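Hey, I was hoping to borrow your eyes for a little while. I'm sending you its amino acid sequence along with the backbone structure tokens. Take your time with it, there's no hurry, and the full record follows here.
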Amino acid sequence: MLFHLLTPLADQFSPLNLFRYITFRSGGAVVTALLISFLCGPRIIAWLRSKQAEGQPIRADGPESHLVTKKGTPTMGGFLILLALTVSTLLWADLTNGYVWVVLFVTVSFGAIGFFDDYKKLTKRSSSGLSGRAKLVAEIAVATIAGVLIMQLTRGPLATTLAVPFVKNMLIPFGGFFIAINVFVVVGASNSVNLTDGLDGLAIVPSMLAAGSFAFISYVAGNAIFANYLQINHVPGAGELTVFCAAMVGAGLGFLWFNAPPAMVFMGDTGSLSIGAALGTISVITKHELVLAIIGGLFVLETVSVIVQVASFKLTGRRVFRMAPLHHHFEKKGWQEATIVIRFWIIASILALAGLSTLKLR
């Protein structure tokens, strides 16, 4: 909005030229999202507390300590992330850019799915919300629509191909089946973040690291000169997603202020599903789907731990981990929550750096 209002006035007042630059607007998006979080956070949390007398339902089969330490903490805090992220993006992004609207559509839609899931949990006073089938069908529908829109917005062969990291100019053609790739990436990323969200602050910091990494990737992929220098695929228009990613970092920092141990609020599925879906969609647009698996390697690890646990128990009757996802395994081993969270943050930081390093390994 500010881009459209102020850049036409740059000829009369030259400092307004700053609004033409993605880097400047990205910085503004970070600060705006952070301020919205700080200003609205206390009121939103107070409102959630008033509506959720007993807080988020705690898994009966989870770590025993959670029945004490997590009891009474409200959920749906992801609404604060969505509010700060959406408002900041609408203020600072170029709203004529189709990619921005696709990512916003996916983010808000998955947030709505998560909201209904959280609402079901609260009304049923159970850790089970929407049925797995209903949630999956809704997620696939949104991701399919997004996939069609991305294919229409993307030029040339990039529209239906999968880029392979480490190898320059290698694109695997999928044709119309690329929509299935988009669905797999978006839905998989969404549910991976959701599985990781189990301890105070555990999911939000790796999400911010991934968003920061994709802010850089979006910027260089959208710039023909930088893309050519790094020998990555140039995606015209993708640079504007830098503003969205920056807003996500600011919203994440603001949410972390209230989610730091001991958490005043949980993001719930409202936040985790929308964050993961947004990251997945951005990775598809920038042609870095496989790099997302590296940058978001912590989310992948948590998801794999669940898959391995379920498969092992069904096939052999034995559990590989004391409890899945992986962070609960370490809780069962006696690790303190803060120790698990900080060590997982360290792992996420290393993986984000490893993912960014692939930009030069061509």
